[in-house]
Structure prediction request, 323 residues.
Amino acid sequence: MQFENKTILITGGTGSFGKKFTKRILETNVKKVIVFSRDELKQYEMKQEFDDDRLRFFIGDVRDTDRLYRAFDGVDCVVHAAAMKHVEACEYNPFEAVKTNINGAQNIIEAAIDKKVEKVVALSTDKAAAPVNLYGATKLASDKLFVAGNSYAGDKKTRFSVVRYGNVVGSRGSVVPFFKKVKSAGNLPITDERMTRFWITLDQGVQFVIESFHRMQGGEIFVPKIPSMSIMDLAKAIAPECNLNFVGIRPGEKLHEVMITEDDARRTLEYDNYYVIQPEFPWWGKENGNNGQKLQNSFRYSSETNQDWLTVEDLRELVYDKE
Prediction:
């Protein structure tokens, strides 16, 4: 078992992903799980929810290198989920987004190497591919840093990989809880009727990260094959009785999201239920491909042209039964 008798640390561990990941990992024979985050109230509430003596809580910020060095002492694996992730907040607080998402990534890398952490998986976003907003740009820079971290590690044992996926059903700040909150007024604000997004559940996201720990050699960007959804279908699933108010695209927002661009496709391998964007390392050998299939150079993994789509019924089931 990958995490047998291991110590796992999760940055941003009190978030939606962190809580779900913690629950899953505590079901294994893990030695210790460390939740690293800034909010003492959320840590207190999480401690009441998870009654397990293998769970530890560490107040800290990924911007603080010294605190990371202390937290990483004796840690085997790190999941880096901490980020400023709200598009509008990043647009209007750009310096803060850079400090957390880019400088924080560098701090994680340096602390992990120096403290001899074995594996680090960093969470990314579809907005990091061909970014048009600051959040996506900072996450693209973060992805590049984590891939390059394998070269910085040199002959040290630390290895870094990235997981990139789309919108998470029901996560804090997502459109689902927002639609549920405002539908009682009888109107739903829709940015654009053409809008599409990749869609994944928290359970699926956590499972994919766990699987990526098993698969990683260091330097990969793992991309799951997940369905797309239409914003209009989502509105029908959550509030079919509501009037729709078209308000226009917000600052930094795309009509459609991309997870693999045409340029990335040239070095991407396809597997049954995921893709691997390979690093451009001299030491990255053919044996790391594990029989993956090369993509056509013109391939583009976009929410608009995806072959897998959720119906209104699918979305209703996800929204109300599987959050």
